[in-house]
Sequence to fold (199 residues):
Amino acid sequence: MSDTSGFKLLVVGSSLGGMTALVQLLGRLPEDFFLPVVAVQHLAPSTESQLAEILNRHIALQVKEAEEKESISASTVYLAPPNYHLLVETDLTFTLTLDELVNYARPAIDVLFETAAEACGPAVIGIVMTGANSDGAKGLSHIKQKGGWTMVQEPSTAQSKAMPDAAVKTAKPDLVLPIDAITDWLLALHTTQKRRTLV
Fold:
């Protein structure tokens, strides 16, 4: 973490067990956390998601579903809506698509991660957490190839370790840690960034 000044975006992927994992990851972040957070949680396509409402009860950051062409702002958690892929554009806005399923999922973590890497290059932090498939592994590898920072939940601590295992094997991430330790890392990054802005 020698240079933290260039980060613009934090992207997170989760599936089975992801709601609990997201609360754990984001619950200690302050309401003025300096990065936008964009998350894909695998959801049933035919149901209205209550994930934003649930997360808003447990975390200080504002949580909302991402909207088409919406500008991405700091201190906000954006969630992919059910049955839509969520893409990050180079002007830091969102695109929602009904393109084919990826890894049997829509929204797919790989789609978010790959477009975030293309849009922001080394300015992206990617995190893969609990899940029962391999979604996110390819996308996290793409983030690393573009110079971004990559983290994976320690598989032995995940409710379902298939997704973290696949991400570790494919992406060879920078850090593999329990969720609480990932949050500690993000809090340290936030503190460092605030000090930079005060100088």
